[in-house]
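Give me the fold.
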Amino acid sequence: MCDDVSGRNFEHVRRVKLLGHSVLQNLYLRDNHWPIIDVEANWEALRHLELLDLSQNGIEFLNDKAFSSLVGLKTLLLADNELGKMAKTHTEMFAQLFAKHSNLSFLDLSHNSIDSIPHESFLSNTHLVHVDLSQNRLTEVTFKCRHLKALEVLNLRGNMLTVLDAATKATLDNVPHTAFIKISENAFTCSACQDYSTIEWMIKHQKVIDYDLLRCRNENENFVNVTQTIQKYLKDVCEKPLKNKITIYVTVGIATLICVTGSASAYIIVKRRKHRRQTRQRLDTITKLLDGRLEFLVFLQSLGADEVKS
């Protein structure tokens, strides 16, 4: 009779071999509470295994050699564990968890409190069709996926994405055009200019399959549907500072023009007045000179007349 192995840690277990031949295709080992699976094993007898279910075990650490011999595996279910802890403390090993499973087509890592997925995580899994990363704590998505030509669904629902930064958008843009992305139930915001590119991307991106479920938190901390109205509002928010600057520049320009025009007009008026004054002064002087000459001529004429009389 086999012992009950639930609720145990498998620490530093090495050189495990299961020889023989089995036609078993599906193996369900869920809900056993195995926090630590530090095992290096050769499951040669299970060479035909296609499905392995390790869900709901509270797994915090899973040695990358524990099930690496199951090269025919097509479905790996690891939902409802604590692999986020391993992703933090043993990042390199976490990135290699699926390296030997080149035939893997369905991977479920949902509900694992994972903060980030290493860049190289799925390099060997070119046959992946469905990747479920929902209900984790992802704030960005930066793993390589251009090579996942068979991918049909990438589930990112229920994470902690507030915006789609440049790296995340680049990753999602590299998802094959035949694939669909589920991205609702995240913590997207739509209250500031920095949110505009995210909202625009989600509205325009045809890969987003759950567009009707997308919601974001506005400036009043209320969740609203992601719509073109929200996009237009954010565009106006982004353009407002520029419009204000343009208004200020135009106002200052007009004021400066008025000042310059006024100064120029005043200068011209003053100059004209000065010119007129100078002209009048010259005319007065000429008039006076002319008056003096006339008096002098009259005087001379008077002298001439007196001499004639004498």
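The chain has a mean pLDDT of 87.
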